[in-house]
Amino acid sequence: MAVQIVSDFYNLFPNKLTLVFTIGSIVLVAVGNALFRRYKYVQRCSKVPGPPTQIPLFGSASEFVLPPEQIMPHAYELYQKYNKSSIIRIWIGSQPWFLLGGAESVEVVLSSNKIIDKGPEYDFIHPWLATGLLTSTGQKWHQRRKLLTPTFHFKILEDFVQVFNEQSVVLVQRLNEKVGQDFDVFPYITLCTLDVICETAMGRNVDAQSNKDSEYVKAVYNMGHIIQARQTRPWLQPDWLFRLFPLGSEQKRCLSILHGFTDEVIRERKNEHKLRKAQQQKKTETTPNGEDDFISKKPRLAFLDLLIEASQDGKVLSDLDIREEVDTFMFEGHDTTAAAINWSLLLIGNHPEVQEQINEELSRVFGDSDRPVTMTDLSELKYLECCIKEALRLYPSVPFFSRILMEDVAACGYVLPAGASVVAMSYVIHRDPKYFPEPESFKPERFFPENIIGRHPYAYVPFSAGPRNCIGQKFALMEEKIILASVLRRFHVKALDKPSDVPIVTELILRPLDGIRLRLTLKKST
User: Fold this and answer.
1) Are residues 32 and 116 in the same domain?
2) Cβ atoms within 10 A of the Cβ of 449, count?
3) I need a labelling partner for 214 at 20 to 30 A (CA). Which of 78, 248, 407, 409 fits?
4) Are residues 20 and 113 in the same domain?
5) What is the number of structural domains in the chain?
6) Residue 81's domain is classified under what CATH number?
7) Which pTM was predicted?
């Protein structure tokens, strides 16, 4: 083809000098047009205020060449410095990123049914989760969201209360060993939430709280570290280069464990599902009320069982489809919840007056009993829920989430061009003094019903918002309330550090750099 084109040009321009001049002119015009388009693109982006380019080719990325614990505070400072209409612009190399730090700007993006494509940093999650609900887009995402929404129905979530209570009992037993000592509570809570999500997502108890050295538990944590490393280290981002590093081999090993475990559980649960259906059919044929008898005795179902039922024997979901959704539940369902509980304990442990009000509510609901928490109890724990929501305001488990613009978008007086990345910064949005006066103060009363009236619906987005909001937010709040209630019914909590003295690390979730140090005191003997 190339030879033919040159031949045609030669026939058209038999004079070689004329040919060279013509080709050169065409190239110059093409390059000129490309440069002009790029110039106009940069001009449009630069209308949004933001830090200047400091190093050619790197843009303003050098602003974030910082220790991990300084990245989020620095982003907050930049936003305060350059913000004029809840949007600032930074350049990461040649790519513009628009940081949305206000309710008005983030509403434009999160409320859209078109702006649903996740940002490039999610690509590093694909080896583990493939394109499940978190990472998929377009028609696949719409279909999966519609299919999975019923699995988070209130009546189904009610079945998981028993799991939350059972694992909370184990947690309290382990914390009982630390009474009177100064210790980091973060790993204890995290192992508890990992046990919860394994049992609710897969119906498998991995006993993480008792066996933290299990291969599956270690693989879950190692994959989290690998994903974070790739997101923050440019030299690990190209796949071919990443595979040359030791982390590439470690990822391959972890994926073999994670996918192998999930595949094995899927096979086992599918066989159990077929057996239950056969038993149900047999009972229906032999007794008039056989089906009712079967339903009353059937085991508690996990999300995996619901996916198997929805798969219609592979017609709707293949085994690989089921695996990517189960793995997505695993990935999203333990670290985020653990972070919310840990930050809540830090804040409650710093505010004795808040803890006293929680104690009064717990006494009113439970008295002196040690009975499990019920669904009815959850609706009565209103003040505890306000404390959790306020903790999520100050320390949202996911401090930012990004989208890629597939077309131009108008927001707050600016036109954000197609191809740019937009980042909704919940950590910044939640500190807008217009909606949250004294934004750094821990005030659970902000979420009393009378104080929510009139607040912008996008001023508080710990679970994102709009069509791509977190499908499991009710599940998360139920789990957080039960675990916190279980801990606070047993112990008085004293935090050993002030929130302002606890450095935060912006990883996949918002973590404390050195954990959450507490001292527990028994409230009563058992």
Assistant:
1) no
2) 8
3) 248
4) no
5) 2
6) 1.10.630.10
7) 0.89
Domain that holds residue 15: 2-37
Count of beta carbons in the 10 Å neighbourhood of residue 298:
12
- Three-class SS state of 433: coil
CB 394 within 8 A of CB 343: yes
Torsion of CA 233, 234, 235, 240, to 10 degrees: 110
> Do the strands 421-424 and 409-411 form a parallel or antiparallel pair, or are they unpaired?
unpaired
Task: Please give the C-alpha separations between residue 437 and each of 78, 393, 443, in angstroms, as whole numbers.
Answer: 20, 13, 10
Task: Identify the helix (H) or strand (E) that includes residue 96.
Answer: strand 95-100
Same domain, 69 and 33: no
Distance CA 467, CA 485 (A): 31
Beta bridge partners of 506: 510
Strand 491-495, strand 182-184: pairing:
unpaired
Q: Does residue 380 fall inside a structural domain?
A: yes
Tokens matching residue 472: 């499991």
By 3-state DSSP, what share of the chain in percent is helix, strand and coil, each rounded to 5?
60, 10, 30
d(CA 368, CA 377): 14
Indicate the burial class of 341 (C-beta count within 10 angstroms; 0-12, 13-18, 19 or more).
buried
Question: Rounded to whole angstroms, how far apart are CA atoms 236 and 458?
Answer: 35
DSSP states along 170-214: HHHHHHHTTTTSEEE-HHHHHHHHHHHHHHHHHS----TTT-TT-
- 141: nearest Cα among 480, 442, 403, 339: 403
- Shared domain check, 83 and 22: no
Q: Assign 366 to helix, strand or coil.
A: helix
Per-residue pLDDT of the chain (526 residues; tens, 9 = 90+): 555 655 655 565 556 667 677 777 788 888 877 777 877 888 888 888 888 876 665 666 666 667 778 888 888 888 888 876 689 888 877 788 899 999 999 999 999 999 999 888 888 999 999 999 988 988 999 999 998 988 887 788 888 999 999 999 999 999 999 999 999 999 999 999 999 999 999 988 888 898 777 888 889 888 888 988 887 777 888 899 999 999 999 999 999 999 999 999 999 988 888 887 777 777 776 765 545 544 445 567 789 988 998 888 878 899 999 999 999 998 888 889 999 999 999 999 999 999 999 999 999 999 999 999 999 999 999 999 999 999 999 999 999 888 999 999 998 889 999 888 899 999 999 999 999 999 999 999 999 999 999 999 999 999 999 999 999 999 999 999 999 999 999 999 999 999 999 999 887 789 999 999 999 999 865 4
Q: What does the longest C-alpha to C-alpha distance in the chain come to?
A: 101
- 198: Cβ–Cβ under 8 A, 6 or more apart, which residues? 204, 205, 206, 208, 330
Q: What are phi and psi of 402, to 5 degrees?
A: -120, 160
In the DSSP assignment, the letter for residue 59 is B
